[in-house]
Amino acid sequence: MTDLLNFDKVKYIGNSGFKAGDGFHFYNPEEEIQGKKMKDWLKFSVAYWHTMDQRLVDPFGDGTAVRPWDSISDPMDQALAKVDYLFEFLDKMDVDYFAFHDRDLAPQGNTLRETNANLDKVIDKIEQKMHETGKKLLWNTSNLFTDVRFLAGGATSPFADVFAYAGAEIKHSLEIAKRLGSESYVFWGGREGYDYLENTDTKRELDHIAAFFRLAVDYAKEIGYKGQFLIEPKPMEPTSHQYDRDAQTAIAFLKTYGLDKDFKLNLEGNHAFLAGHTYEHEVRFAREAGLLGSLDANMGDKLIGWDIDEFPNDIYESTLVMYEFLLNGGLPTGGLNFDAKPRRQSFEMEDLRLGHMAGMDTYAAGLRVASKLLDDKYFKGILEDRYSSFDSGIGADFEAGKTKFADFENYVIDKPESEIFKNVKSGRQEQIKSTVNNYIFNVLGGK
Q1: Which pLDDT does position 447 carry in this prediction?
Q2: DSSP-based three-state secondary structure for 294
Q3: Pairing of strands 44-47, 97-101
């Protein structure tokens, strides 16, 4: 492979020293966790839009990124060159997967036909590189939010021509998914919501997007694409309110429209934070609904109120997310996609390498700790003890469907208040949090 990037392949060096950047301290791809190699559990993925396209803009400033392909002036030549850089980056980072939006890859033409032709030239090269390297497509998606035509959404647009364009774009994107063997296909509704309630027919828009999703499922079956469909929740930004604002809202939408057999969720740490949740909260509810599909590995900043897509570095969070992940049996058609970018002041190519290393180590560390928590049945024991009163007596009768309100009344009517409270136990929240810290210190300190 041509050496375009000025760094060597990153290797596992173990927990030696404090400075990051010399190698992976916790990500050992061949290490077995719960009977499976770490690389097969985590399935790390590089996000094309942040790694190859992101200029590090923010709402108040122009891009600062300096990239080796910036000197290529022709848009198509640059688009084709970036494919070479991507696959070398994947190789040197020891990452097997990547993900992209259709509009990440090639410049738009004057018509959709021209745009598709530009895109297909890049797809030809990506397909060739995949065959040469064995790298795989975790998921792809369509960008139905950047172009001005999508100012009021794509599948929820009140304008039929825009809606039709969105459908035509998805059609071609699904054909690409089939061609490249994409393991999943994601819908992120970047503008599928409303900015002002009083000029929005919300019921009609929800009916439209549900029907749009059914058309996507139908076309996938028609062309023989078997990847998993995913919806990625986000509460707001760019719209005031997005219809798939968090995991529970998205689950309710899928069940309301009978789409839960075909769709699962792609969850993101930063989006969870913006919705007022922890990341592990979102993963828990998706897992319990049987709808956990894939994860975008990033985090937000508690001091900044927008979607900053920071590389993850919180091992406490990654541990709790990985615990839910292990209970889910991993992500058969999903993985951990780094929908993340360096900070605006970290503008060099080297910062992309360091950011991905940090994220990979953070989730590898979380996986190790979560595995120990699972082996020790620590959380399982807490839950069994806390809900033990439902394992016998009136609690067991209720769970078995044997009780009515009259039975509850007969059970408690003459009990003194002190009897009701005497079996209430402390939640021991402070101890549990501290114990999780101790697991982190001990599991990672011993490596």
Answers
A1: 47
A2: strand
A3: parallel
Token pair belonging to 258? 């009978």
The pair of three-digit structure tokens given for residue 43, joined into one six-digit string:
């399935």
Is 192 within 8 Å of 243 (Cβ atoms)?
yes
Instruction: Judge whether 101 counts as a catalytic residue.
Output: yes
Report the alpha-carbon distance of residue 418 to residue 166 in Å, rounded. Answer: 63
Secondary structure E strands in 124-239: 136-141, 184-187, 193-194, 228-231
DSSP 229-285: EEE----SSSSSEETT-SHHHHHHHHHHTT-TTTEEEEEEHHHHHHTTS-HHHHHHH
Supply the pLDDT for residue 2: 65
* Distance, C-alpha 207 to centroid of its chain: 25
Cβ atoms of 47 and 53 within 8 Å: the answer is no
Catalytic residue among 25, 101, 277, 356: 101
- What pLDDT score was predicted for residue 3? 87
pLDDT of residue 216: 98
The single-letter DSSP state of residue 34 is T
Distance CA 75, CA 103 (A): 13
- Whether 440 and 7 have beta carbons less than 8 Å apart is answered as no
DSSP 53: I
53, 104, 246, 296: the active-site residue: 104
Regions of the chain with pLDDT less than 50:
447
Where residue 264 falls (left for φ over 0; alpha for ψ -120 to 50; beta otherwise) is beta
For 238-249, how does the pLDDT look when each residue is reduced to its tens digit (9 = 90+)?
999 999 999 999
Show the tokens assigned to 194: 């409303």
Handedness of CA 281, 100, 364, 345 (dihedral sign): negative
- Quote the tokens at residue 195: 């900015």
Contact 224, 171 (CB under 8 A): no
Helix, strand, coil % over all residues of the chain, rounded to 5: 50, 10, 40
Decide if 50 is catalytic.
no
- DSSP string for residues in 329-361: T--TT--EEE--B--TT--SHHHHHHHHHHHHH
pLDDT for position 305: 87
